[in-house]
Design brief:
Helix content is 7%, strand content 37%. By secondary structure, it is mainly β. The strands form 3 sheets. The chain has a 4-stranded antiparallel sheet. A 3-stranded antiparallel sheet has the order 1-10-9, with no helix packed on it. The longest helix is centred in the middle third of the chain and has 4 residues, at 50-53. It binds FE2/S2 (inorganic) cluster. FE2/S2 (inorganic) cluster (FES) is lined by residues 43, 45-46, 48, 63, 65-66, 68.
Length: 123
């Protein structure tokens, strides 16, 4: 475990998401009112930067690009959302917010390169 201080709890307004550099790793921290979530900075759908396209309201994070959404209290997927959020463990101590940086969390994005070109070639 490697607990790193991200910010003071009061630095992050309710219903906001802010990007932090934690020893070279970008972490997006959301304050959803009754708690905090620290997550990778991009949407698990198509890598949209969530500090720009993420909307936090009513304890829900919504990516405004294609409206995937997650309940930040339960991490449940809402609506048409097909991938769960990955989350870093967080804790509060003496008014500060800490994140447990064990390793950088990243999503698997399917690449067109994975197609076998030979499959489509005609001989
Ligand atoms: S990129 Fe976020 S929902 Fe599609």
């Amino acid at each position: 475990m490697t607990w790193k201080k991200i910010c003071d709890v009061g630095d992050l307004a309710v219903n906001t998401a802010k990007l932090f550099d934690v020893e070279g790793v970008n972490v997006l921290v959301t304050n959803y009112g009754s708690g905090f979530r620290a997550i990778p900075p991009v949407c698990p759908h198509m890598e949209e930067p969530l500090d720009e396209s993420g909307i936090v309201a009513n304890c829900v994070l919504t990516c405004s690009k294609h409206l995937w959404a997650w309940d930040l209290r339960t991490l449940g997927m809402l609506g048409e959302t097909e991938k769960p959020l990955k989350v870093y463990e967080t804790r509060q101590e003496d008014g500060a917010l800490f994140v447990n940086m064990v390793e950088e969390l990243v999503y698997d994005f399917e690449s067109e390169d994975e197609f076998d070109d030979d499959f489509f070639s005609q001989s």
